[in-house]
Amino acid sequence: MSDKIWPYCTPGIADEDFVQGNTPLTKEEVRVVLLSKTRIREEHVIYDIGAGSGSISVEAAILAKKGMVYAVEQDPVALKLIYKNKERFRTGNMTVIKGCAPEVLNILPPADRIIIGGSGGKLPEILAVCEEKLKEKGILTVTAVTMNTLGTAQGLLDEPPWENLNIVQVAVTRAVKAEKFRILKALNPVFILTAERGRTE
Question: Would the pLDDT of 3 be above 80?
Fold first, then answer.
């Protein structure tokens, strides 16, 4: 019997297994779809930009067990949660980067995969650096909870060097107990955009 908190080979760690605070946590159903569409291999180098509580970073590190995940975050409160979750899930192949994107990305090695969960209003600037840091045919994944972010991301990722843009909306409804009954409770929908880094001439 494994003593790991998450002894499985599939993503989707239960929300309650993470150390949480007031920092938003990407819900487990969204993480499952996001990680699946990001197509992670065990040797990949991955950036998680705007890592928040670190839930995506942790899951990515478990999948990329021979690679490295860089959890990029600038908020001090969120950083504490990332460190706690890194320790909780024993993800030694996860490095926490304190700082603001896109500036801190310049110190990182080239990436096989990049996940952007938060951009602080700097999505165009971040994507410009990601064009340089992401390897050819690497996959970029962006999450959007507002129509503004969705529109900005779609407009940018529809242009070269980005290719094969895919957009899905994940709208999760859970059945929760209410006294003797179960009622449906909808979570906020999330858009997941993925694109490949094409060849530059």
Answer: no
